[in-house]
């Protein structure tokens, strides 16, 4: 333990000298002695300064030193969060995964910390930033929704709730858009039973989907075109046209839906 303590202090001395030389100034202040009481604060402050300058790698070195070598420091929880933030800000799939790991570890070590809500939201953000286009694999989108749901359940009174709701809507819209495109493909090739099932499943899973006007219209059209004169199928289509007209003031499908409503009610 003594050797670990000394090696940790020695690293602090090396960091101090490196910063002084890099700055090109002959400061008269003496370098921190091994085990100096404010060594953890020094590391945290230097990491924060580097992060402000977007020197992510350098900031991570300071924060990592503090986290690994000063387990009892009051700055350690914030350094752990800041370490994860540098990965998120740096970007790239590898960094986002490393950032997610930092926030997950924070929640394991400090589950009741005042900033646990922030850690959970950042964990979710690490996945939202990895979400792919609707036509591609949606594994990251599903992971993001899972972590956001944990946030909503654990921190209902968090001041970060508006941001969490916004992230949730973005993630759910991405997943619903992927499902809509599958249904629309079935619609285009005129396999209406498949389109109907897909659109109904989408609305059941995400009734607040931002693009549901298109879902209403193509679901109603699928029912209409597969009706073969069946009054039951036509009657089932009508409410979806009407929901489109009721819920949306602007939509490219409004005039088309209005024509169908007029036609069906005339019948």
Which characteristics define this entry?
single chain; mainly alpha; 12 helices; 74% helix; 267 residues
Describe the structure.
The chain has 267 residues and is mostly helical. Helices cover 74% and strands 0% of the residues. The protein has twelve helices and no strands. It has helices at 2-23, 39-52, 56-69, 76-90, 93-109, 116-128, 139-154, 161-188, 192-205, 212-225, 231-247, 254-266. It starts with a helix and ends with a helix. Mean pLDDT is 89; it is low at 1-34.
Report the end-to-end length measured between terminal Cα atoms: 87 Å
What string gives the helices and strands in order? HHHHHHHHHHHH
- Stretches with pLDDT under 50, minimum 5 residues: 1-34
Structural class, from helix and strand content?
mainly alpha
What characterizes the major β-sheet? none
Mean pLDDT reading = 89
Fraction in helix: over 70%
- Tertiary shape: elongated
Global Rg:
28 Å
Count of alpha/pi helices = 12
List the helices and strands and how they pair.
Layout: H1 2-23, H2 39-52, H3 56-69, H4 76-90, H5 93-109, H6 116-128, H7 139-154, H8 161-188, H9 192-205, H10 212-225, H11 231-247, H12 254-266
